Amino acid sequence: MKTHNNFDDQFVFEGKAKNWSLIAIVIGVISIIAGLFFNTDREFSNLLLMAYYLTCVCCAGAVFCAIQYAAQAGWSASMIRIPQAFAKLIPYASLILLIVIAAGIHFTHNVVVNDRVVAQPYLYAQWATAGMSDVHSPNYDSTVAGKAGFLNIPFFFIRLIVFLGLYSLLAGMLVKYSENEDEIGGMLNYKKSFNIACVFLLVFGMTDPVFGFDAIMSLEARWYSTMFGWYNLAALWVSGLAVITLTIILLREKGYFSWLNENHMHNMGLFMFAFSIFWTYIWFAQFLLNYYANLPEEVVYFYKRWEPEFKPWFWLNIVINFMAPFLIIMSRDAKRKTKVLKVVCIILILGHWLDYYVMIMPETVGPNGRGFSYEEIGTFIGFAGLFAYMVSTALSKFKSLVPKNHPFLEESLHHHV
Q1: Domain boundaries, the chain
Q2: Which end of the chain has less neighbouring CB within 10 Å, N or C?
Q3: Which tens digits make up the pLDDT trace of 118-168?
Q4: CA 183, CA 378: separation in Å to the nearest integer?
Q5: Strand pairing category for 116-121 and 108-113
Q6: In the chain, which residues have pLDDT < 50?
Q7: CA separation (Å) from 2 to 9, 10, 37?
Q8: For 4-32, how does the pLDDT look when each residue is reduced to its tens digit (9 = 90+)?
Q9: Is residue 187 classed exposed, middle or buried when 0-12, 13-18 and 19+ CB atoms within 10 A define those classes?
Q10: Handedness of CA 175, 390, 102, 373 (dihedral sign)
């Protein structure tokens, strides 16, 4: 890039970055194929974990954009292309997630339950197993049958498709209006962005907790927590902030977005710090209420995670996702140091992968799910490569890396805190 004020340069996706992302995708494909052949139930769990994680991070990009427009924030205008690139990927991430869930429900394997061999799906076996709502079936479960009006396959997929479709549509409109703003100038498209941002935040805020109920909590259909959806929303937001911040840092190291300075990084560090505390509050509140009530139908969720196979990961989860940002980036100076933020971002990205791991594995795989094998490592690498490839491709399609006609661009370029 020539100067920090040259906004006509485009991101070029080539060379080592492209090659490494393709190599990561190949590693992931090989690992997934091997996992499906040799350890199918565990691989399906990892596919669900990473597909859900990918979708959440992409949605977090749209949430970031919407918050900035709804708040009429100026400091972020010059970096908005990065979360916009995330938002453009929501349809593709959603499709991957829907395919994984559909395959996990469609394909079954034999499991011994109460001395009977039962054909259970690899995912959502607690409610999607045939006959669980049929009083004449040997698989009948009265608790699950009572939830059949909500937890049934047609309605389940209708909800997922509607939610993800709305996120994709509204996020796409946010990006489109920003690009139109570059072409024609004026305030018309900014006003449209403001209106759509408000609609998106309303829709997302009302539906994302239900999305978390469906995709993750329904794996354990006999258990419920009214806080689980907000817990997942907090995890989505923190992990998304970490990925956005890490992307900014990596692109600046390559010479892009050189107009972003320590003041912008301070704000991103502040967001990560604050919402890591919020995530911890939700985690602790959900755990404490269940622990204090000590009702069998409530503590069963935590009982599984206190088995020897998962208890170390259960406690490591809170240590990584709370103590690391709390101790490392509490001070103002730490938030303004790129190297420190880079380390914290990587910790949080891995930490919230562990968070989803603890949510999913104890139910879908059980004690055999403890630890990390090639399925976990390979699937993570593959999805990370896919995400890097898609985000880089999306960024390369922007005519400019900065919204040149954004009304608050000058404020962002001179941002100081």
Answers
A1: 40-222, 227-372
A2: C
A3: 889 999 999 999 988 889 888 898 889 999 999 999 999 999 999 999 999
A4: 42
A5: antiparallel
A6: 1-4
A7: 9, 12, 51
A8: 456 677 888 888 889 999 999 999 999 99
A9: exposed
A10: negative
